[in-house]
Specification:
Strand content: under 5%
Radius of gyration: 16 Å
Mean pLDDT: 92
Number of helices: 7
Helix content: 55-70%
Number of domains: 1
Structural class: mainly alpha
Shape: globular
Largest sheet: none
Length: 166
């Protein structure tokens, strides 16, 4: 049985749903953020890549990908900024974990970033709510980038309070 979807459509869905995490029946945005957090912890533990450049590249790459595939993913998933589309959570979370050093965020910092990012992503303080009203990929990702920036500011305060170097 075929769904009538092309290989390109299946790739868009795989990426948009955060490798399937957005298909979670319970809190798909949180499920997508968990996958992004696990990726950050795994890279920090098993990669020799510098954190600052890698996280920046992941944030920019996933953001650009949201812009490119956003409209098609909305058509495939049905509706504006569908819940199953969680690649934007990846982009926002990568922003929330940015660092100015080659050292990867600690597991505690990743946890703090996770909590703050989910808080700001759900609450959508200004301008996140307004950014979400934009169409296509921009409306999908820009509110999450704003939430990621707010969370990053909270992580920076956490690092200062705990004297964790940036």
């Amino acid at each position: 049985m075929t769904t009538g979807r092309t290989a390109g459509d299946r790739l868009v869905l795989l990426l948009a749903t955060g490798f399937g995490s957005g298909r979670s029946r319970f809190a798909p945005g949180t499920a997508g953020t968990v996958v992004a957090a696990v990726l950050v912890v795994a890279l920090g533990r098993w990669s020799s890549l510098p954190a600052h450049w890698t996280l920046a590249a992941l944030a920019v790459g996933s953001s650009l990908l949201c812009l490119v595939i956003g409209a098609r993913a909305e058509a495939l998933l049905g509706g504006k900024d569908p819940g199953a589309f969680v690649l934007d959570e990846f982009a926002g979370f990568f922003v929330a974990t940015l660092t100015l050093s080659a050292s990867w965020p600690s597991v505690t910092e990743v946890f703090v970033a996770f909590l703050l990012f989910r808080l700001f992503d759900v609450a959508k303080p200004t301008p996140a709510r307004q950014l979400q009203n934009l169409g296509g990929g921009a409306g999908i990702v820009l509110d999450d980038l704003a939430a990621g920036i707010y969370a990053l500011m909270g992580v920076a305060v956490f690092r200062q309070v705990t004297e964790t170097p940036l």
